[in-house]
Amino acid sequence: MFESLRAVPADPILNLSVLYRQDTNPNKVDLGVGVYKDETGHTAIMAAVSRAQERLLVEEDTKTYVGMAGSKRFCDLLSQVTLGTDHQVLTDNRIALAQTPGGSGALRVLGEFINVAKPGATVWVGNPTWANHIPVMTSAGLTVKQYPYYDAKTRGVDFDAMMAALEADAQAGDVVLLHGCCHNPSGADLNLAQWQATADLIKAKGLLPYVDIAYQGLGEGMDEDAAGLRLMANTVPEMVIASSCSKNFGLYRERTGMAMVITATAEQASLAQSQMNSVIRSNYSMPPSHGAMVVETILADPKLKQMWRDELKTMRKRIKDLRSQLVDAIKAEGVEQDFSFIKRQNGMFSFLGVSAEQVDKLVNEHSVYLVGSSRINLAGLNQHNIAYVAKAIAAVL
After folding, report:
1. CATH code of the domain made up of 10-45+317-396
2. Looking at 194-286, which runs of residues are DSSP E strands?
3. Identified catalytic residue from 28, 37, 247, 320
4. Predicted local confidence at residue 344, as pLDDT
5. CB 279 within 8 A of CB 68
6. Is residue 93 within 8 Å of 269, Cβ to Cβ?
7. Per-residue DSSP letters for 247-261?
């Protein structure tokens, strides 16, 4: 049987990490893998997370299963962070919730859930989108099509083309996947007026919005980053949401996330919960517990919650400062090309907009590691390497 197997090409982003580790250049810079790093280049455990873990070490008294949907308290608290404490769908009980193994687990659970409701449903994803969106959706049995999203000329959202494509080609019952904030890989987000127009179009055509919110709190603020998602939930009768705690709690390896299904009625929410539980049972059966318990402990304690929000504010400010500093450093190298778009974008990512050949030179001649699309992780910059990166960019232009 196994003689028919063939090697799968290495993941281009994860392969960059391998190449980076093997590089002996003392000036090497990793702008590839999308994790937050501090000024020393370290992805540290947040102080609020450490405090919560210390408490759990003393108070946790069992390692029994948490059930298919995970901790109800975790789900309730995180849904309030995502939707707001008094959102109508929460007060009306029009929502089904499940703790999942990370945001990717939430995406897959919701993909399979959609495939139960409508086998082979079409999911429209933006071009570009996160690299794992399409494999997750197709593996769940869904059909994937793309709509235009990013305009390489304006370095912003190609909103007119996006709306035109969905208006012309999306059919009732199709799904539209949207990034809640801090678009990966472009950093270009919809503004609130565009969110409302998108919501109106989705409602009018009978589409299902599928929002992936993986970076809440790393753009403009916790509530600001969820404003578009909340507006969408105010407008449409049905919606699915995948939420991740990897970035805003720094729980990358703990694989902590949540899947949310908003329905038109409380009765439908109960049915959705049973179907989502069934999907989970036949997949990984029960979610891992530790990361969710950490988040639950933080969100349930006002002091820990404030500590966490303060840390997140510091991280957010640092990313914004790095965006401005990189633009200024490139300009200081005498580069005439305008990179000011980097300042206008949100979150950790941006396209430099250089060619594939120039990306190769950055990697091979300057040891500045970035994805072939020219996507960079701004959080990989710091005061020790930002001038070097600017010089390398100037050298290849």
Report:
1. 3.90.1150.10
2. 208-213, 239-244, 256-262
3. 247
4. 95
5. no
6. yes
7. TTS--GGG-EEEEEE
pLDDT score, position 18: 87
Q: Structural domain boundaries of the chain? A: 10-45+317-396, 65-300
- Ranges of the chain whose pLDDT falls below 70: none
289 contact partners, CB below 8 Å, separation of at least 6:
63, 66, 70, 71
pLDDT digit string, tens, across residues 25-41: 999 999 998 999 999 99
| 212 noted as active-site residue | yes
Pairing of strands 143-148, 122-127: parallel
Q: Look up 247 and say whether it is catalytic.
A: yes
Catalytic residue among 158, 189, 212, 225: 212
Amino acid 311: pLDDT: 98
Active-site residue identified among 130, 158, 174, 308: 130
Nearest to 12 by CA among 365, 361, 360, 382: 360
Confidence (pLDDT) at 33: 87
Catalytic residue status for 130:
yes
Name the token pair of 316: 């957010």
> What is the structure's pLDDT at 17?
85
What's the pLDDT tens digit per position in 170-209? 999 999 999 999 999 999 999 999 999 999 999 999 999 9
Q: Which numeric CATH code is attached to 65-300?
A: 3.40.640.10
185 within 8 A of 128, measured Cβ to Cβ? yes
Q: Count of alpha carbons within 13 Å of 325, Cβ hemisphere only?
A: 18
Give the span between the Cα atoms of 346 and 338, in whole angstroms.
18
Query: Which pLDDT score is estimated for 10?
Result: 77
Q: pTM of the prediction?
A: 0.96
